[in-house]
Each structure stands twice: as structure tokens, then as C-alpha cells.
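Let's practice the habit of predicting before peeking. Look at the sequence and jot down your guess about where helices and strands might fall. Then scroll down.
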Amino acid sequence: MISETKTFTDKFKLLYNNIREFHLSGKNTGIETATKYSNGVDKLISNELNLDYKSKGIVVLALGGYGRKELCLKSDIDILILYEKSKISEAKNLAENILYKLWDAGVEVGNSLRTVDDCLELASTQDATILTSLLDLRAVAGDSILHTDLRNKLNKKLLPNISQNFINKKILERRGRYEKHGTPSFLVEPNIKEGQGCLRDIHSCFWILKAFYRQIEINRFLDGGFLKKEEINIINESLEFLLKIRNHLH
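Done guessing? Here is the structure:
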């Protein structure tokens, strides 16, 4: 059992090996494997930090593939430590604690330490990268009110002002990906993340939907009139296929 091991590295390696066997058994879907791995990492981080939803002023958020619960074997783990200004010292200590443990376990970690205002300012003034990562945010441990505050301000304050510009950038990014990964040399060995019809196209669909409807809660399983049932089924079947291949490659 994970709880019987002594170090964070031991716990992470046990989780990783369990997920690897879960995948290689051939009995589970790519989505099930990615979700189980994401949930396992959630539990490890939560237990290590001892933060619950009532903790005040600090929350650990999952971003990117981790935020979407699409964590594949050997994927980077992207986290944002969101804090109130009065909690800056505690937030830095917490970040140092969990980041060093993840690095020691051999994990590639994308990390940031920000306030709500920092997030809004960076997402509105930088390129689309920061806003893109925030559109997939999900709470792992800590202050649920602070998480809700960021989510609401993204929906009501930020997206109404920059959604069309963001959508335009995503369309241009797609054209650039197609030009790069559609050349004969790339088609010999397709890029399942960046290539045409691959993972980034699925992600882009939902980033654009979230920006257009100004709701970051939209996800591939929601049937709120955003997509037809047939379209959702096609997306989920494609995602299942691509995630299974990605786990095999990893």
C-alpha cells in the first residue's frame, strides 16, 4: 500500500508502477488510465501538504494535461500555487516543499506561484499561453473559496474582454501546427500531440468553446448545447485512442 512507504519518492514510484501495470493490462481505456494517474497524483500531493478545502489563503491548482485529468506516463505535471498576499511566506515554503519532492521523484514539473491579480494580469498581457493553461485549471488541495474567486474572475472579468483575440490566436496556432506537422517528414511519423486531428485539436476545440461562452467549466463530457451528442462521442473516441497510444509511447 502507498501509505506504508516512507518517502514521497517511494510513494510516487509505487503509484507510477501501479498505473503502468493498469495500462499494460489491456483491460482499461486510455481515458481511465489518465484519470486514475491524475487522481493518484492529486492524493499524493494533498496528503503531503495536508491542505483541505477549508484551508485559508492558499490553494494548489492543476493546470494543462494534469488539470484536464489527461496525465499520461512520463507527462509533465503542471501546478499553480495560488495565494493571498498575506500568505506569501507560507506559499513559498509550501511550494519549496512539494516541488523538491516531485523533482526528487524524477518528475518534470511546470510550476508558478501567483495571486489572483497576478493571474489576471499575466493572462491579459502575455501571449495566449498563460490563459490557455488557466482554462484547464482544477483544484487539488487548499482554499476552495480562493479557487472559486479566480474561476469567477476569469469568466466574468477577463474572458469578456479578450475572448475574441484569444480565439483568433488559437486559430493561427492551429494553422502553424498544420504547416509544420503536415510536411512529408512529419507524416512518416505523425505527432499525436501537435499533428492534424490529434490531441491539440481536441484541446483547442474546448479552449475556444470556453472563451466563446466565457465558461471555463466546459469540458468534453458536458452536453450543454455546445456540441451535438454525436460530436462529443467522436471526440471521446478519438481522445481514448490517442491517450492509449501516448501511454504506450511513453
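How did you do? The chain has ten helices and four strands.
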